[in-house]
Amino acid sequence: MFETGRWNVTDPTGKHVGVVEGDEYVRDGEHLLYRIDGNELYSAGPEGRLYGFIEGDLVIAPATSALLLRFVQE
Q: Can you give the pTM of this predicted structure?
Protein backbone atom coordinates (compact mmCIF):
# COMPACT_ATOMS: atom_id res chain seq x y z
CA MET A 1 0.00 0.00 0.00
CA PHE A 2 2.78 2.47 0.85
CA GLU A 3 5.22 1.56 -1.95
CA THR A 4 3.93 4.37 -4.14
CA GLY A 5 3.29 7.99 -3.35
CA ARG A 6 3.59 10.03 -0.23
CA TRP A 7 1.40 9.51 2.82
CA ASN A 8 0.89 11.96 5.67
CA VAL A 9 0.49 10.34 9.07
CA THR A 10 -1.71 11.96 11.72
CA ASP A 11 -2.75 11.11 15.24
CA PRO A 12 -6.47 10.63 16.10
CA THR A 13 -6.94 14.39 16.56
CA GLY A 14 -5.52 15.14 13.09
CA LYS A 15 -2.15 16.42 14.34
CA HIS A 16 0.68 15.72 11.86
CA VAL A 17 3.03 12.96 13.09
CA GLY A 18 5.19 12.22 10.04
CA VAL A 19 5.24 10.92 6.46
CA VAL A 20 5.74 7.70 4.50
CA GLU A 21 7.54 8.25 1.21
CA GLY A 22 7.32 5.07 -0.87
CA ASP A 23 8.93 2.76 1.69
CA GLU A 24 8.19 0.98 4.96
CA TYR A 25 9.01 3.80 7.41
CA VAL A 26 7.09 6.63 9.02
CA ARG A 27 9.55 9.46 9.51
CA ASP A 28 9.54 12.91 11.03
CA GLY A 29 12.19 14.69 9.00
CA GLU A 30 15.34 12.58 9.33
CA HIS A 31 14.08 10.53 12.30
CA LEU A 32 12.50 7.11 11.74
CA LEU A 33 9.46 6.76 14.01
CA TYR A 34 7.75 3.54 12.92
CA ARG A 35 8.40 0.56 10.64
CA ILE A 36 5.63 -0.97 8.54
CA ASP A 37 5.72 -4.74 8.00
CA GLY A 38 2.71 -5.98 6.07
CA ASN A 39 -0.30 -4.85 8.10
CA GLU A 40 1.68 -4.36 11.32
CA LEU A 41 3.22 -1.14 12.68
CA TYR A 42 6.34 -1.39 14.86
CA SER A 43 8.63 1.11 16.55
CA ALA A 44 11.62 1.89 14.35
CA GLY A 45 14.08 1.28 17.19
CA PRO A 46 16.04 -1.92 17.74
CA GLU A 47 13.39 -3.36 20.09
CA GLY A 48 10.76 -3.32 17.31
CA ARG A 49 7.76 -2.97 19.63
CA LEU A 50 4.41 -3.76 17.99
CA TYR A 51 2.19 -0.66 18.12
CA GLY A 52 -0.79 -1.79 16.13
CA PHE A 53 -2.39 -3.25 13.05
CA ILE A 54 -3.06 -1.33 9.85
CA GLU A 55 -6.69 -1.63 8.74
CA GLY A 56 -7.18 0.38 5.56
CA ASP A 57 -5.75 3.80 6.35
CA LEU A 58 -5.98 3.40 10.15
CA VAL A 59 -3.66 1.93 12.78
CA ILE A 60 -5.54 0.19 15.58
CA ALA A 61 -3.96 -0.79 18.93
CA PRO A 62 -4.04 -4.58 19.42
CA ALA A 63 -5.19 -4.66 23.05
CA THR A 64 -7.65 -1.76 23.20
CA SER A 65 -8.87 -1.38 19.60
CA ALA A 66 -8.14 2.34 19.97
CA LEU A 67 -7.26 4.43 16.92
CA LEU A 68 -3.56 5.28 17.04
CA LEU A 69 -2.70 6.77 13.65
CA ARG A 70 -4.25 7.57 10.30
CA PHE A 71 -2.58 7.51 6.86
CA VAL A 72 -3.68 10.13 4.33
CA GLN A 73 -2.31 9.91 0.78
CA GLU A 74 -1.23 13.17 -0.82
A: 0.90
